[in-house]
Specification:
With 744 residues, this protein is an alpha/beta fold. The protein is built from 19 helices and 29 strands. Bound molecules: beta-D-glucopyranose.
């Protein structure tokens, strides 16, 4: 017995010694110490393995050291279903159905950073539950043209709005021990020629328009990873562009995260080694380029890199930097022992998807207050259009999902109104009856072989007999209609919808058009239709969120995150830029498509203001079922030399009879400047909620950054003392109060 006790005590005393773990495994130690320790233990081969994929979506880690695989997943609007090891096709799991969240264009339309946080936290929980370490999103490329096939995955045209929305999204995702991978850095603003587009952009435009969102994600959101774009910039591929990655992201912004290539975006070892890329994914796999399957050793950052180091072509310095970054990423995610467990399709996630959807829907027009639907007065509603019944979570490219459920608009309306109101449906047009992407199917067969005449006749008949008509159409994530890999070919709605809408407006004046899309469309019938909603792609809760806004259960409060153009002539990129480009040559002598951004900083409303154009709807526009009155701006007359900020305020009153939310937008104008500046620029906004009759004093702080422009020669932001004007309003085209001041 005595001996036993002795053995027990001895074992206790030696416990601490045996339990002592290497520094890199000890998460009580500073992360940099852990990184250096792990690095020092790795062989050259292990380092090379760490920085490139081993399957479609994973990298191998360092098995010998117990450093686990790093699993990534798309992103950005739900967690992608599991695919086979080296194929895009489905792995056939039965437990990988997700909550489909609204498109990021809808999130941006909430103009509510709290929604960004809720979104990020919720999708991060789903990624965590699926044991993913990197969520390939959010996408934040600037809406330069309404034709960009991926606008629905992005957050609109304004760098300040994007910055405000991306930071909480990133924080929310990462609170789960899952890295956000902010994409596609940078200037990936079109899908046509996406592998060869070579935007030619001056520094001022780059810094003022295309970088601020990414900078905010890196420096304020502390995003742990970034994804480079497929496109080029100044003749070098974005994913390993020395200016973007080394000088700006890792240099000026002092960012310590890891740069992941877009899938198949690497084309050369030498430039990838030095251009700031840390991890290579997607090249030479079956399905993207013409490679063989399971050929990961052939990656540009695999054997060719290893051999280059062994024969002295490359030093190990760049490799060590890449490895450090990947180790940091791994410690923050896969090896984070304190992360929560996550959850999938929880009640909270359903509620989040619905709430974000409701707040993102934009009421563009509501003449004579024909909305919300009042069941007492509206006994029969005709719902018309393919998008009322089409499931949209499948399709569109890498953001395609396998949703656990998806409530269509028609289902949502029926479940909300079905007991009180007779709802009849007519197809109206046939767009894309398919519903399959990479082996995921919606299970719907929407084939309808009737002629256009038959479909139109039925729709008009149904419309005539109803008290109200709700047309639900738009785009649908098929090629050229909001999809990765293709841009739209025109601003117009496809499938004869314009003609149908015009005919419906004649058949029944109580017409509501719900446009489902992630980008703006031409609306030649805008004056003939009393009510229009921008309905986005709202994911699992689509029908519930739409029904809730249409019936007034939720008072709409979304605002457009981009200008709704009447024609492409109103878009700087099309009026002045060379879209989709002219043939040129990159630094390695390959053919590319040069795309001069001749409109410079005049993107979106900046171009509209400069040319005094009348878009269909202005940037920031969105109505409510109540009304808001703005008072006068209160602000100091002088922004004194020693001060670093001024306070600005404005009273806003709810003058209607419903509780509602309003996004108060503050724009700044430099009245006199030595360089050409936009007429006004969004610099602050606040979303407030007001009860009927309630007034709130909305307060903002303006600092000198908000008054500055980027001086390319000095390579810094400059505030020129002089006269400025503050413009506050309900949209970029609806300024309610102005006040000037002098900045010293
Ligand atoms: C897309 C990325 C995506 C990746 C992985 C690429 O084609 O551009 O956004 O994350 O595929 O699916």
């Amino acid at each position: 017995m005595k001996n036993l006790l002795k053995v027990f005590l001895i074992s206790l005393s030696i416990l601490p010694a045996t339990a002592q773990q290497p520094v890199y495994l000890d998460d009580s130690k500073p992360i940099e110490d852990r990184v250096e320790d792990a690095l020092s233990r790795m062989t050259l081969r292990e380092k090379i393995n760490l920085i490139h994929a081993q399957s479609k979506f994973s990298s191998p880690g360092v098995p010998r050291l117990g450093i686990p695989e790093l699993w990534t997943t798309d992103g950005p609007m739900g967690v992608r279903p599991e695919v086979l090891w080296d194929e895009w096709d489905q792995a056939g799991w039965t437990n990988d159905s997700c909550t489909a969240f609204p498109s990021l264009s809808a999130l941006a339309a909430t103009w509510n950073p709290e929604m960004g946080l809720l979104y990020g936290k919720s999708i991060g929980e789903e990624a965590r539950f699926r044991n993913k370490s990197v969520l390939l999103g959010p996408g934040i490329n600037i809406y330069r043209t309404p034709l960009n096939g991926r606008n629905f995955e992005y957050m609109g045209e304004d760098p300040y709005l994007v910055s405000q929305m991306v930071v909480p999204y990133v924080e929310g995702v990462q609170s789960n021990g899952v890295a956000a991978c902010v994409k596609h850095f940078a200037l990936n603003n079109n899908e046509v020629n996406r592998h060869t587009s070579n935007p030619i952009v001056d520094d001022r435009t780059l810094y003022e328009i295309y970088l601020p969102g990414f900078k905010a994600a890196a420096t304020e959101g502390n995003a742990w990873s970034f994804m480079g774009g497929y496109n080029l910039f100044r003749g070098e591929h974005a994913s390993y562009n020395p200016i973007l990655m080394n000088d700006i992201l890792k240099g000026e912004w002092d960012w310590d995260g890891a740069v992941i290539s877009d899938w198949g975006a690497v084309h050369d070892t030498a430039t990838a080694v030095t251009g700031g890329l840390d991890m290579e994914f997607g090249s030479w796999t079956n399905g993207l380029t013409e490679g063989a399957s399971n050929a990961y050793d052939n990656y540009f950052l695999a054997n060719p890199y290893l051999e280059g180091i062994q024969n002295g072509t490359y030093s190990e310095d760049e490799l060590n930097d890449k490895v450090r970054r990947v180790l940091r990423l791994t410690f923050r995610t896969a090896m984070n022992r304190n992360k929560p467990w996550g959850s999938m399709v929880s009640d909270e996630h359903r509620a989040a998807a619905k709430q974000i959807g409701e707040e993102g829907i934009v009421l563009l027009k509501n003449d004579n207050d024909i909305l919300p639907i009042e069941p007492e007065k509206t006994k029969k509603v005709a719902v018309i259009g393919e998008n009322a019944i089409k499931k949209m979570t499948v399709g569109g490219g890498s953001s395609s999902l396998k949703a656990k459920y998806e409530i269509t608009p028609l289902e949502g309306l029926k479940s909300r109104l079905g007991d009180e109101v007779e709802i009849v449906y007519a197809r109206g047009y046939v767009g894309d009856p398919s519903g399959e992407y990479n082996g995921v199917s919606t299970g719907q067969d929407l084939t309808d072989l009737r002629s256009v005449e038959e479909l139109t006749a039925e729709a008009l008949q149904v419309a005539k007999e109803a008290d109200m008509v709700i047309f639900i159409g738009g785009l649908n994530k098929s090629d050229h209609q909001d999809a990765e890999g293709t841009d739209r070919e025109t601003l117009s709605l496809p499938y004869g919808q314009d003609e149908l809408i015009s005919a419906l407006a004649k058949a029944n004046p109580n017409l509501v058009v719900v446009n489902i899309s992630g980008t703006g469309v031409a609306m030649p019938w805008v004056n003939d239709v009393p009510a229009i909603l921008q309905g986005w792609y709202l994911g699992s809760e689509t029908g519930n969120a739409l029904a809730s806004v249409l019936t007034g259960d939720a008072n709409p409060s979304g605002k457009l995150p981009y200008t709704y153009y009447a024609s492409l002539d109103q878009v700087g990129a099309h009026k002045l830029g060379e879209y989709p480009g002219t043939p040129g040559i990159d630094v390695l002598g390959n053919e590319v498509m040069d795309m001069p951004y001749n409109e410079g900083i005049f993107v979106g409303y900046r171009f509209i203001d400069k040319n005094k154009l009348n878009p269909t709807f202005h940037f920031g526009h969105g109505l409510s079922y109540t009304t808001f009155k703005y008072g006068d701006i209160a602000s100091p007359k002088i922004f004194a030399k020693g001060d670093d900020k001024i306070e600005v305020s404005i009273p806003v009153t709810n003058t209607g009879d419903r509780k509602g939310k309003e996004t108060v937008q503050l724009y700044v104008r430099d009245i006199k400047s030595s360089v050409e500046r936009p007429f006004k620029e969004l610099k602050r906004f606040k979303k407030i909620e007001l009860n009927p009759g309630e007034t709130k004093e909305v307060k903002f702080e303006l600092d000198r950054n908000a008054l500055s422009y980027f001086d390319a020669e000095k390579h810094s932001w400059v505030m020129e003392p002089g006269d400025f004007e503050i413009l506050i309003g309900a949209s970029s085209g609806d300024i309610r109060s102005k006040k000037s001041f002098k900045a010293e």
